[in-house]
Amino acid sequence: MGRDRDPGAGRAPLVDRLGRRLPRSPVNRLLTTFGALRFVGARPAHGGTSLWFHWWRWTTLGETVGFCFPAVVAVALPGVSPPALAGALLVAGAVEGAVLGAAQAHVLRRALPSVEGVRWIAATAVAALFAWALALTPTVVPGGVGGWPAAVLVPAAVVAGLALLLSVGVAQWWVLRPHVPRAWLWIPANAVAWSAGLAMFALVSTPLWREGQGPVLVALIGVGAGLVMAATFAAVTGWALVRLLRRARQGAPEPERAPRGVTPGG
């Protein structure tokens, strides 16, 4: 009871409520083609299950659409030099981050209005660019990294892997910290979410990709696996967001001190 009570308790089932509330838009029709349920109506809730679903829906869409850019680039540029391909993938990776950030900012605009959408999008795009740069570094190192001694390769791989998993969470935490108590929890939540999402991507794509497949099929498999990855990532981060905002509504300690020059209002 009290503050912990689910906002939707005692109401119609979640699907029926959302069916009357979510806005008519091309995005809803696009989600329907992805196999999501069909919804029509108006506004997202600011917490609980409805906020989780709204975040999950938009984040899944944003990451799936964003991931199409590097997936298409990787398949559309066969035979180019590794540095040229890496450069194209870096640009596509930044676009992926921007699309993901824009989808998430759409939800935050109502759930946490004090967060500036432009800053959120920019932080996510820069973090995605950094993550892709880390992932692509082995492909452009002269001679490759296969010949490196294990004493160098293993620590380097661990550090790079951790930095990759933490990149988006750290960048978004920097935007969240003036507005949400214990915003640092967003960092491990994102790391867990990306770990689970990448694991699901590998589980789906690895058995399906075969040598000699055409570029269209390769891209379709990649996008399908990317959808599963996105949905997994969105589910975990949505849970973390609901917990953070619930703590804020319950009068938790003041948000972390903003960096110099940044005010809590943005």
Strand-residue proportion: under 5%
Please tally the β strands and state the result: 0
| C-alpha Rg (nearest Å) | 20 Å
Q: What is the rounded distance between the termini?
A: 33 Å
**What is the global morphology?**
globular
Average pLDDT confidence is: 79
Main beta sheet: none
Residue windows where pLDDT falls under 50 for at least 5 positions: 1-47
Transmembrane segments: 120-141, 153-176, 183-204, 216-242
Keywords: Membrane, Transmembrane, Transmembrane helix
Secondary-structure map:
Blueprint: H1 14-21, H2 26-33, H3 48-76, H4 82-111, H5 117-140, H6 150-176, H7 186-208, H8 215-249
Structure write-up:
With 266 residues, the chain is mostly helical. It has one domain (48-142, 155-249). The chain contains 8 helices and no strands. The longest helix is centred in the C-terminal third of the chain and has 35 residues, at 215-249. Mean pLDDT is 79; it is low at 1-47. The chain crosses the membrane at residues 120-141, 153-176, 183-204, 216-242. Keywords: Membrane, Transmembrane, Transmembrane helix.
Brief summary of the model shown:
The protein has helices at residues 14-21, 26-33, 48-76, 82-111, 117-140, 150-176, 186-208, 215-249. The protein has 266 residues and is mainly alpha-helical.
Brief descriptors of the model:
globular, mainly alpha, membrane, 266 residues, 69% helix, transmembrane helix, 8 helices
